[in-house]
Write a structure and sequence with these properties.
With about 240 residues, the chain is mainly α. It has one domain. About 70% of the residues lie in helices and about 5% in strands. The protein has 10 helices and 3 strands, in the order H-H-H-H-E-E-H-H-H-H-H-E-H. It has a 3-stranded antiparallel β-sheet. It is elongated and about 55 Å long. About 30% of the residues are buried.
Length: about 240
């Protein structure tokens, strides 16, 4: 008796594409929950990350645009005042674009570096996170810092300092709230100690990353990349 041969099962490419887009959309929809209701938001994010480890990437790539675009607007079109001076300083558009690009690359690169740091700190825990899981965790912890980049569009001292303080505290609170939930750890003193280690390492990575990318930007600049005032900028245009 002959049975019909059964070939390999082929999945519809359209369904795969639709499924991928649905996963990415669901991950983006988790952003408000993590930011404003972390107790439940981190659980939902953990469950989705367990099933689709890399679905966080659109969140990272999209939200990292916020500080990059705002830095460009603030330095090229709004301007800022130096301490002890009332002159409004501006960058040329090409210099501001380069600065915005490096800010974007710096955020994405910093998340990758910090993810490796998180994996190293948690290497003795029961379930050491994968790179994808650590990057997802760092991405959502750093969301307040990315959103705080809105202050870059209006680079006034009080706004910059106040925004930096508020978003840093917000990120630290998200870290301590999400670490035991997202990483499947017990809510104990040991976990809080690990969280403190991550915070300390995070400040070091943040400062080092900012210094490196600022230096990269400075090396690309010339005297013509800086405009002294809005009047001079208008004259150049």
């Amino acid at each position: 008796m002959n049975f019909p041969s059964v070939g390999p099962v082929k999945r519809d490419k359209t369904s795969l594409f639709t499924s991928s887009r649905t996963q990415e959309l669901e991950m983006i929809q988790n952003v408000p929950g993590v930011l404003f209701s972390p107790a439940t938001g981190w659980r939902q994010l953990r469950d989705q990350s367990d099933q689709h480890p890399w679905s966080f990437l659109p969140v990272l790539l999209v939200f990292a645009l916020i500080p990059a675009i705002c830095i460009y607007i603030g330095t090229a079109h709004v301007g800022w005042e130096m301490f002890g001076s009332e002159d409004n300083r501006l960058l040329t558009r090409s210099s501001a674009i380069m600065l915005g690009i490096l800010v974007y690359v710096g955020f994405v690169f910093g998340v990758g570096v910090m993810a490796q740091v998180v994996r190293w700190i948690l290497f003795r825990t029961a379930g050491r996170p994968t790179l994808a899981r650590a990057m997802a965790f760092v991405t959502f912890v750093s969301l307040p810092l990315m959103i705080g980049g809105l202050a870059g569009a209006f680079p006034y001292r009080v706004l910059i300092v106040g925004g930096a303080f508020i978003t840093t505290v917000w990120s630290v609170l998200l870290l301590f709230k999400g670490l035991p939930v997202f990483m499947h750890l017990k809510d104990s003193d040991q976990t809080r100690f690990l969280g403190a280690c991550i915070v300390a390492a995070g400040f070091l990575v943040l400062i080092t990353n900012a210094f490196v990318f600022q230096h990269m930007w400075r090396t690309t600049q010339t005297d013509a990349s800086y405009v002294g005032s809005q009047e001079e900028q208008s004259g150049m245009d």
